[in-house]
Amino acid sequence: MKLAAALSERADLQRRLSEIGIRLNNNSKVQEGEEPSESPEELMAELDRTVERLEQLMACINLTNSKTSREGKTITELLAHRDCLKSRIQVMRNFLDNASNKVGRMTHSEIRIKSTVPVSEIQKRVDLLSKELRQCDELIQELNWTTELQGL
After folding, report:
1. Domain range for residue 82?
2. Is residue 152 part of a domain?
């Protein structure tokens, strides 16, 4: 099984867990004399099977990510780098939005508000970080589709 297929199955299992939780809650109480639309016992058994498979898959994904490397970094390191790049870019974009907002003046006697940073230079840095993010994400995606899942 390729890593990408395992990641897809993991996402499906996580969605299924959420759905099982909703179904359990929906069948936790009934009016006296009525039957639940689904058996809570069967739902809990499905929950157990789903969690067991998810745990197994997550362990294999983590093992694969920690043992597979490209360009001197494991997938785990690439994922951490990608997540931190996303956070940095988001903070910098918010800052640039704030710094580039014009504050209008009604009269010439009002205080003039100006940016504390060179917006265009910082925008160039954000553009370079965005390019690095795209390249990192492409590398991760390539590895996901070409790497065999370990530990199964």
Report:
1. 3-146
2. no
